[in-house]
Specification:
This protein has 23 helices and 18 strands. It is an alpha/beta fold. The longest helix has about 30 residues. The chain is globular. About 0% of the residues have low confidence.
């Protein structure tokens, strides 16, 4: 459906932006616009048959291409012509707000396009007025809200948080705050915020007595008529997990744009993973049983509610007994296994995802117990929702709503535990690919006991079922999607259609302005001690103390050891991850450079992506070694195990492409504008000496090379 009229509209909008902002038209940007428009033209108008080709475009556009303008101009025009809602999903809430508050208003003003847009966040980003009111009402006595976690909101913290809660109520009443956590002027601690926010399971929706003042539903109502919904990956996946259309527009009526789309497969895995902490679940059930034994007498007026409430404590105690058996069974498994005593947490990965025979019947029994709990709580929830709809003489609606919050929260946690035990009540034999299952014994940071986890190892089937096969159109874009100059890695992990439109758009940067250096070294990173000593010896000569540098490590231990070895040489100019927050490190680093002093950041993987240090803020990126995945990652190990079981080479098929992608991301911290220049130094000669090294080297941007 890409007729001449649509082409003209797209060209006019793009040219208007270029002229208005005095930009130089970029070939890569034009190419990206064309590819997106052509792909979305595969979406048939209402009443016409679907195209044989999917309306899915996966496009890698190098840094500096101007991706935002490109996908906005093409996708907005096509979505409006097709009568579809455009859903733009960023990787983070910060990027989401930048798109809403800066990018889209700017594009609308400069392009001449007429469109509306709204911001979509999950319930957890908004205050729940019912919980806030209850917290304030309970401030003089014992809370009527049952904590979801044993280490959750207690009396001391409540007292500490009351001034914040009081200020929130006042700001809401004055209309000076919209209930959005991100718009509160001060930082809010996680536990403080957790006490006054809610999720889908606890929310009574349109039945809530405070619905007319609900911050979340006010924001959600704005979505109904918006041409563009701006959100994040997590909320899109949460909506798709609910079948689509529960929070956002239905997938069949939506064109999705996933910016920083290389995160999509990992984000999907996290949404479909499950876990259960045995000890904390036991304590929570015991505490909840005690609270329920003293349930509100007012609820007697609701037929059947009191009786169900009275049955719950006994069911919870039965479940606790089953969890104790699970603890004993898991403890035996750990006694029979061998572990590294130096680790704070011991991890037992179940090979091939197979559940031990001794654990299966225990899990099956727990499935039955949690199903009973879920059934009772579901019936209670329905009764309380009906009570909120009806008028009971003398019955306080706020009391009913409080108990709806309690029951909904309990139901959500019970169902989450049920999901985990369903995964352990089967052997796992015959799963293709197998799921990753592992058990961790926690003994640090106030946590103790066993935690059981289960996760898919690939998101391909998940995304096929809920996204690729349902959405009207999908655009996935990022500066780093390919690995080893191929989209194969993304196809494997995401399940994106093989006949989708896959394109690479070159960056406008002049990579010849940067030098990629591999110095001569006598050691191999495989010898961790020798490699660390070499880094300590060489860093004072490699790093210029008077410029901005970023040093990236794959190991926290190596980072700390190198810091101890060289910190004296740099007179306090090193900022190490862990000493301060990421934001504070970047602030101090920029302050030092602005003040004419040098600064060196020591960071791990989180500094290898999403960090923007243009110009003098970063003239040198040093990468300690090729960033292969941590060898004890249960997901990585399970995937590798499955690949090897098929007679394939997991190292070459999984580990090398993953490492190549991470190396490209890390080296991408150097050039952030067209005027930038500098050096990337890799302290790992395996890129020259190993067979796989040449493939990794050739996948890097075309830097000037100095290979020692």
């Amino acid at each position: 459906m890409l007729n001449e009229d649509l082409k003209d509209r797209i060209r006019e909008a793009y040219n208007a932006i270029v002229e208005s902002k005095s930009l130089t038209p970029r070939w890569g940007q034009r190419q990206m616009i064309a590819e997106i428009a052509n792909t979305l033209s595969r979406i048939p108008p209402p009443g016409e048959n679907h195209s044989d080709l999917p309306a899915v475009c996966v496009i890698e556009a190098g840094t500096g291409t101007g991706k935002t303008i490109a996908y906005a101009v093409a996708a907005i025009t096509m979505a409006r012509a097709l009568g579809k809602r455009l859903v733009v999903a960023t990787a983070t809430i910060a990027l989401q707000e930048q798109f809403v508050n800066k990018d889209l208003p700017d594009i609308r003003q400069s392009s001449g396009m007429d469109f509306t847009f709204a911001l979509a966040k999950g319930r957890r980003r908004y205050v729940c007025l019912s919980k806030l009111d209850r917290m304030m009402a309970d401030s003089q006595g014992e809370s009527s809200l049952i904590p979801l976690y044993p280490d959750g909101f207690g009396a001391p913290l409540l007292a500490e948080a009351l001034p914040t809660y009081d200020a929130m109520l006042d700001a809401l009443g004055r209309g000076e705050w919209d209930g959005d956590r991100d718009n509160w002027p001060d930082s809010i601690g996680e536990q403080v915020w957790f006490g006054v926010t809610t999720d889908h399971s606890q929310c009574s929706g349109r039945r809530c007595p405070n619905i007319s003042q609900c911050s979340f539903f006010h924001a959600r109502d704005e979505l109904q008529n918006a041409d563009i919904i701006v959100t994040n990956h997590d909320l899109v996946l949460a909506d798709l997990a609910l079948g689509g259309g529960a929070i956002l527009s239905p997938p069949e009526e939506s064109i999705y744009v996933f910016d920083e789309g290389h995160h999509l497969p990992d984000k999907a895995l996290s949404h479909f993973a499950s876990f259960c902490r045995l000890h904390t679940t036991i304590v929570w059930l015991q505490d909840s049983a005690k609270s329920l034994a003293h349930s509100a007498p007012a609820l007697v007026a609701i037929d059947g509610v009191q009786k169900l409430l009275q049955t719950l404590p006994a069911e919870m105690e039965q479940t606790v007994a089953g969890l104790h058996v699970a603890e004993q069974t898991v403890a035996v498994l750990f006694e029979e296994a061998e572990f590294d005593d130096r680790r704070d947490e011991q991890q037992l990965r179940l090979e091939h995802g197979l559940v031990p025979a001794t654990l299966i019947p225990v899990a099956a029994e727990l499935v039955g117990q949690f199903q009973k709990l879920s059934s009772v709580l579901s019936r209670l929830e329905t009764m309380l929702e009906e009570a909120l709809d009806d008028d009971f003489a003398g019955l306080d609606k706020s009391e009913i709503d409080t108990w709806h919050i309690n029951v909904g929260g309990m139901l959500g946690r019970v169902d989450a535990a049920l999901t985990l035990w369903l995964e352990y009540a089967v052997s796992g034999e015959g799963e293709l690919p197998p799921k990753a299952r592992w058990i961790t014994q926690m003994n640090n940071a106030g946590q103790s006991g066993f935690e059981l986890r289960c996760s898919p190892v690939l998101a391909a089937e998940i995304l096929q079922d809920c996204l690729w096969s349902k959405a009207a159109g999908v655009i996935v874009t990022s500066a780093t999607i390919t690995a080893l100059n191929s989209f194969d890695r993304f196809k494997l992990h995401s399940g994106a259609p093989l006949d989708a439109n896959y394109k690479t758009v070159a960056s406008p940067f002049n990579y010849a302005n940067a030098t990629f250096i591999v110095p001569a070294m006598d050691c191999d990173p495989g010898d961790a001690q020798a490699h660390t000593e070499a880094l300590i010896e060489r860093f004072p000569h490699i790093l210029d103390q008077n410029e901005g540098s970023l040093v990236l490590f794959s190991s926290r231990r190596q980072m700390q050891d190198v810091y101890q070895g060289v910190s004296g040489e740099f007179s306090g100019r090193i900022l190490m991850q862990g000493d301060y927050s990421k934001q504070e490190i970047l602030r101090r680093h920029k302050e030092a450079i602005d003040g004419g002093r040098g600064s060196v950041i020591f960071g791990l993987a989180s500094f290898a992506e999403g960090v923007d240090l243009p110009g003098d803020y970063c003239r040198h990126v040093v990468i300690a070694k090729i960033p292969f995945a941590v060898p004890d990652s249960p997901l990585e190990a399970a995937l590798a195990e499955w690949v090897e079981a098929q007679g394939r080479n997991a190292f070459m098929e999984i580990s090398v492409p993953d490492a190549a992608l991470r190396l490209v991301q890390a080296s991408g911290r150097l050039l952030r504008t067209e005027e930038d220049s500098g050096r990337v130094t890799l302290m790992d000669r395996r890129i020259l000496t190993r067979r796989y090294g040449r493939d990794i080297l050739d996948s890097l941007p075309p830097f000037t090379r100095e290979l020692g």
